[in-house]
Amino acid sequence: GGGGWGEECEYEELLAGGCPEEPWRYGRDLLLISFLSLDLSLDLSWNRPCRYPEDEWETFPRPFSRPFLEPSCRYPEDEWETQALNYTSGTTGRPKGVLFSHRGAALNSINNALIWSLPQHPSYLWTLPLFHCSGWCFPHTVTLQAGTHVCLRSVDPAAVFAAILSQRVSHLCGAPVVANMLLHAPGAAHFGAALTSAAAGGGQRVKMLCAGAPPPAAVLEAMEGLGVEVTHVYGLTESYGPAVACSWQEE
């Protein structure tokens, strides 16, 4: 392929730096989905038959030209229609299902951007599972801000460090265990030095939303030493993700 949307682009070519114009870049360990270069003149009415991909590494000849749903795709007729069904044990330990409506997901997507002061074109690293409370609605939030989704096969510290530096990640989410894993991983000191050096020069800054039990002050301080600003939030699957936030004060 020569990098155009009308041509196929193989995985090996991507590794060699090919297909520079494609915003959908495939890799076996890293997947970037960028919404900066999409042709917004495309017909997005979804009024045609849809199908599943034949192979998980199948490439897109053109964005959204072959949506992978069936039997058909459509806009919701009502904003209260169910968008997703999430299963959760919750704080009670009793498994239950939680229905997400299109309206609720849309409102919380906007709320995420407001509470985090999320700028346009963020680079968001998926250290939060997409299946966990629908990713706290961040699939919509990042797309709303025309950002880039940086996806990993697994939350491995080395892969996280490499992705943050190589893809200039600006935001990520996760539980306190993710922060602890990064702090105690081999190479954390080297990563912290590289990131804080970039931030000191007015460059890359990384922010993290950490949900669940409040991280100890020592963890917050250590993460700051890595160059990552942590904000604690709390929510429920029933609230579509983060519902309250512990905002930083000037003092």
From TrEMBL:
Keywords: Fatty acid metabolism, Ligase, Lipid metabolism. One of its GO terms (biological process) is fatty acid metabolic process. One of its GO terms (molecular function) is ligase activity. Gene3D superfamilies: N-terminal domain of ligase-like (3.40.50.12780). Pfam families: AMP-binding (PF00501). Residues 76-245 form the AMP-dependent synthetase/ligase domain. Belongs to the ATP-dependent AMP-binding enzyme family. This is AMP-dependent synthetase/ligase domain-containing protein. The lineage of its organism: Eukaryota, Haptista, Haptophyta, Prymnesiophyceae, Isochrysidales.
